[in-house]
Specification:
Family: Belongs to the SspH family.
Number of domains: 1
Mean pLDDT: 94
Radius of gyration: 10 Å
Pfam family, one: SspH
Protein name: Small, acid-soluble spore protein H
Keywords: Sporulation
Number of helices: 1
InterPro entries: SASP_SspH
């Protein structure tokens, strides 16, 4: 995924299914300067990670 698509997903009022390494996630925040995103698993609000935007996939 690229930065612009990730930002569209974050800004979208609709739910868009996104995965990281085959696991469903939510994108919490986009970091344009680092080309990364802060994400969390759909079933775990407490466990957050910062990953490369390029590793995110729309399901």
């Amino acid at each position: 995924m690229d930065y612009n698509r990730a930002q569209e997903i974050v800004d979208s009022p609709s739910q868009i299914d996104v995965s990281y390494n085959g696991v469903a996630i939510w994108i919490d925040k986009i970091h344009e300067d680092r080309k990364t995103a802060t994400i969390h698993l759909r079933h775990s609000l407490e466990e957050r990670s910062e990953v490369s935007i390029s590793e995110l996939k729309v399901q």
